[in-house]
């Protein structure tokens, strides 16, 4: 199979099909670039435990190298399978989506495919984990190292001594025609119910804000995970069990209704790169409250919300209270949020990917 423009792209993930932001971005970008005439392959090194289908009718090809946890011999066989797959592609680019993938497969990529390494986290998160050391060791040898914001790219260039940094934000899969009227007394939190999302802090801040606001607001949490019972107990402890609604997993094509029924979105995570929920919510005209934990968050919020110092639950409470009390402030920030979200429209992000390919090929 030869691409219309003669170029092949291979997106390689540790796991391409688990429900998660990185996987969703990969499939969105892969489908978009395939629709522009590239021959695109999405490769998962491992089979997802609970595979999630992101694109109903994908324009790209999908591969899984290992259907079960590989031992040493199976891993070697998988490496040979991956090398054969990549060797059959026409010249182009291999996009490795995480430090684990870069360290695992970089040496398997044939010379006719330029190697690009992505990082979907923030510099702050990388610095607190093994990621920074791995990025420092492996990403500088690639054709390009791609991060989620200009701030993150600059910090990796300075502190990981990378000569090849670039930044491309996460895209919005769609652009809505309708926006939220911002009249429903509902705060929205979206994400896995896991410790890193720190929904306990959001519940605490919401409980204090709800007591300061005369109208009865609700906090709707969309997502599932192991922290459900602990978070429900936390809401009960703060006396807001009747106002914190655990919605479970909501299908992607139903999220438009969730955004239009909310009046603001809150992100209380311990670490994030460039969370899709902020861009999606902003495209519906929702203002946001978020902890200021990464360049990607600062880029996504801009002047369409309120940034709070990391871990400052009292500050988060104050920010929530101010937006819950003021429809005018919600409208002003929501208008700015939608204007800022235009930077993340899919066509614009795909243009940035194509500009990067042109830059590398020079």
Automatic annotation (TrEMBL):
Gene3D superfamilies: Glycogen Phosphorylase B. The keyword Glycosyltransferase applies. Residues 20-171 form the Glycosyltransferase subfamily 4-like N-terminal domain. Keywords: Glycosyltransferase, Transferase. The keyword Transferase applies. InterPro entries: Glyco_trans_1 (IPR001296), Glyco_trans_4-like_N (IPR028098). SUPFAM superfamilies: UDP-Glycosyltransferase/glycogen phosphorylase (SSF53756). Pfam families: Glyco_transf_4, Glycos_transf_1. One of its GO terms (molecular function) is glycosyltransferase activity. It comes from the Bacteria. Residues 182-338 form the Glycosyl transferase family domain. This is Uncharacterized protein. It comes from Sinosporangium siamense.
């Amino acid at each position: 199979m030869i691409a219309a423009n003669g170029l092949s792209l291979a997106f390689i993930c540790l796991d391409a099909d688990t429900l998660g932001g990185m996987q969703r971005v990969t499939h969105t970008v892969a489908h978009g670039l395939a629709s522009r005439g590239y021959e695109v392959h999405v490769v998962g090194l491992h089979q997802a435990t609970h595979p999630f289908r992101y694109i109903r009718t994908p324009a790209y090809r999908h591969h899984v190298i290992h259907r079960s946890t590989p031992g040493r011999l199976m891993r070697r066989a998988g490496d040979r399978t991956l090398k054969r797959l990549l060797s059959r592609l026409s010249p182009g680019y291999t996009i490795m989506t995480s430090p684990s993938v870069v360290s695992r497969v970089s040496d398997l990529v044939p010379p006719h495919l330029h190697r690009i390494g992505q990082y979907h986290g923030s510099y702050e998160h990388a610095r607190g984990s093994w990621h920074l050391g791995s990025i420092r060791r492996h990403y500088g040898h690639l054709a390009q190292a791609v991060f989620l914001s200009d701030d993150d790219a600059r910090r990796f260039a300075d502190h990981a001594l990378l000569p090849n940094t670039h930044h491309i934000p996460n895209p919005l899969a769609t652009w809505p025609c309708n926006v939220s009227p911002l009249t429903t007394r509902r705060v929205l939190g979206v994400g896995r119910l896991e410790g890193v999302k720190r929904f306990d802090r959001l519940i605490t801040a919401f409980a204090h804000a709800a007591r300061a606001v005369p109208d009865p607001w609700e906090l709707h949490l969309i997502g599932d995970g192991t922290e459900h019972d602990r978070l429900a107990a936390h809401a009960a402890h703060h006396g807001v069990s009747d106002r914190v609604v655990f919605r479970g997993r909501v299908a992607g094509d139903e999220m438009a209704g969730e955004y239009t029924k909310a009046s603001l979105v809150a992100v209380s995570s311990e670490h994030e790169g460039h969370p899709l929920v902020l861009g999606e919510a902003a495209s519906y005209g929702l203002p946001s409250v978020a902890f200021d934990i990464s360049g990607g968050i600062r880029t996504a919020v801009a002047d369409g919300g309120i940034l709070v110092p990391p871990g400052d639950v009292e500050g988060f409470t104050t920010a929530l209270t101010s937006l819950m009390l003021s429809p005018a402030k919600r409208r002003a920030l929501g208008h700015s949020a939608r204007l800022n979200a235009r930077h993340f429209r899919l066509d614009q992000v795909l243009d940035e990917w194509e500009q990067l390919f042109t830059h590398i090929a020079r």
